[in-house]
Amino acid sequence: MSTSSPDLDAADALAPARAAFALAPELLYFNGNSLGPCTYKTIEHMRTVVEKQWGIEIIRGWNTAGWIDLPLQTGEKLSKILGAASGQSIVCDSTSINLYKLLSGALARHPTRKVVLLERGAFPTDNYIAQGIAKREPRLELREVSARELPEALSDEVAAVVFSHVNYRSGERVDIPAMQRRAAHYDIPVVWDLAHSAGAVPLHLDDWGVEYAVGCGYKFLNGGPGAPGFAYVATRRITSLEPVLQGWFGHQQPFAFDPRYRPEDSIRRLQVGTPPILSMSALDSALDFLNQFELGELWVKSCRLFAHFMQALERTGLDEDFQLLTPRDPEARGSQISLEHPHAHEICRALAARGVIADYREPGVLRFALTPLYMRFQDVDSCVDHLATIMQTENWRRPEFRLREKVT
Q: Sheet holding 323-324: strands in order across?
């Protein structure tokens, strides 16, 4: 017999963390893998940044408020989350731009190799970036492979690999340590996309032998809409990674206004232009909050939420209506549940009308993020009960639920 959600919530050591978030008590928010909510402390911090730093200090804020160091400072706060030693992480630009920088730089390691392995079914921007690079480097041949095909696809003709740690659509997770060991055998640089794992599953990039990684700040890190991305480069690779976007903030002395570009010898060489202080400040504050917790503790609750969700689906018979895409094995998945249904879009809209914010991805996938800091076990039960009602009454057939918004 499964434990009731009130008992689980009462025994949950993380339950008080929900009060830190600016979430309506009745809201059932399962979309943290697209946009995490903000905390009250971040709201307060942003008021300080706008009213006192920008509002009073104006341009002096670059020195008096330490804006100039914010990309490195925020990157250091990411280190604990990434399982990385100091000096290897920086917050700057977007995930896509950082991927372009790291992949382009990594490809220089083996100028005669031709093959770039890409993830079949990856978040599209990753493969778009690789396609754009290949247009300018005719030697490159792009090959898409699945996670299961990747180990056998590695060889001494492979110039680089771009792969997600957690697939955005299915939630399937790749075994990074095993893949890194195999890639190292052929000296293949791998750029990992951590967008759906940073802040959601425990990461140990240094111990795993990772060389390059990118990710975004607005999903499980709760950095706000359009929060800047991050880049990780292992210490042993930093100075050999030639900046392909040579901007003044990556120069050894940005304010010397040297007409000749000389890249900084640290992770700072990945910077390009002036950092977006307002959005970066929000992410910086969000990381302060997240770093109060151990990711291992969050992951334990995530696994319990997953099991509770699956029990609720089976209790209501919904496991017969939907195809589960996410692996049941905790070691093989991220912190989400993905369900496939031909009318997933309409079902997602019907859930939203009932105050359940889930997520739709083409084609036909309904995603539920499991976010331990603000999700309650009672939220899972309520969500599944709403879903059961929608399916039993076929409420999703209402005409308004067929309408497609600009953002899904």
A: 323-324, 336-340, 365-369, 359-361
Q: Which structure tokens are listed for 307?
A: 């099991």
Helix (H) or strand (E) holding 143: strand 141-145
Please identify which of the residues 193, 284, 379, 381 carries the catalytic annotation: 193
* Count of residues in the chain: 408
- CA 250 – CA 261 distance, rounded (Å): 9
Could you say which of 21, 30, 100, 123 is catalytic?
123
Which is the catalytic residue, given 163, 218, 232, 322? 218
219 is catalytic: yes
In this structure, the strands spanning 158-164 and 190-193 are parallel
Active site residue 123: yes
Q: Is 220 a catalytic residue?
A: no
Element (H, E) at 337: strand 336-340
143-182 pLDDT, tens digit each:
999 999 999 999 999 999 999 999 999 999 999 999 999 9
Of 18, 361, 367, 376, the catalytic one is 367
DSSP β-ladder status, 158-164 and 115-119: parallel
pLDDT, one tens digit per residue, over 196-239 is 999 999 999 999 999 999 999 999 999 999 999 999 999 999 99
The torsion angles phi and psi of 374, rounded to 5 degrees, stand at -130, 5
Would you say 32 and 369 are in contact if contact means Cβ atoms under 8 Å apart?
A: yes
Catalytic residue among 219, 333, 349, 361: 219
What is the residue whose two structure tokens read 């309408």?
A: 403
